Amino acid sequence: MLKEIVIAIQGYIKAHQFIRQHRLWKWILIPGIIYAIVFVFSIYYFGRTSNMFIEWLSQKTGLKTWLDTDKSGLLGFFFTLAGLIFWLIQVLFYFSFFKYAWLIVGSPVFAYLSEKTESIITGNDASFSFQLLLSDMLRGISIAVRNALWQTVYFVAIFLLSLVPLLGWVTPLMAVLLECFYYGFSMVDYSCNRRKMTMTESIFFINHHRGSAIGNGIVFYGMHLLPVIGWVLAPAYAVVAATLSMMDVLPTNETE
Q1: By CB atoms within 10 Å of each CB, which of 8, 10, 40, 111 scores lowest?
Q2: Residue 78: inside a domain, yes or no?
Q3: Is residue 46 part of a domain?
Q4: Number of domains the chain is built from
């Protein structure tokens, strides 16, 4: 799995060179700018609602009153840390739904860009087919909905675990890895779809090549640490990187 994570991460370096060489910027910048604008407003709104929810929960459960009465510095520190972890889990949960909404809305661009990337690599220029594009879009939407449901189940479990003292400290890392896997999952599935894999076959394949999905997702989320530029480039770079890395992961007879 570690090897596949490295290949997936290296895919972003190849993606940058590939995009520059073949001048695919219009497919990168236009959806990227839209994504960045929506991302900023979404995170701002989600951050505010998360703080309000934590405040409401602490008041309803009596934690705030208890801490104010007890006046224990150590106890206050632990609950402050727990509150921060709880806040991070909520933000990741909100961002997860934002991610799936974007995957559904952006599926036409992602499907086309993935196909365009592979056609350039193989030299087989595929003629545009609205029916094929529609099929790819529906497949992408189906995968996004399926993953959203499963990730919600896992997030509920992580959310409950975050309430457990000490043990809950590892939940942000678990949530981030889960996010990375499921975002990369959608990116890798575009390549699986072109190899005529059914959704069941694609799910089986990606579950046995988790490193490819996780590695793709790690860099995607890592690019969000670079304000504006990273937000603009991250979505489309993830598509191209996943397509390029899958050319290395899949056996030669499966890429033909």
Answers
A1: 40
A2: no
A3: no
A4: 1
> C-alpha 190: how far from its chain's center?
15
CA separation for the pair 220, 216 (Å, rounded) = 6
Is residue 63 situated within a structural domain? no
> Residue 115: CA atoms inside 13 Å, Cβ hemisphere, count?
20
Instruction: Supply the pTM of this predicted model.
Output: 0.77
Q: What is the pLDDT along the chain (256 residues), one digit of tens a residue?
A: 888 899 999 999 999 999 999 998 988 898 899 888 988 887 777 767 766 666 666 666 655 565 556 555 555 566 666 666 667 777 777 777 777 888 888 888 888 888 888 888 887 765 556 777 777 778 888 888 888 889 888 888 887 887 776 777 787 788 888 889 998 998 999 888 878 888 899 999 999 989 999 999 999 989 988 989 999 999 999 999 999 988 777 654 444 4
Its domain, for residue 169, covers 2-35+96-255
Query: Does some domain include residue 120?
Result: yes
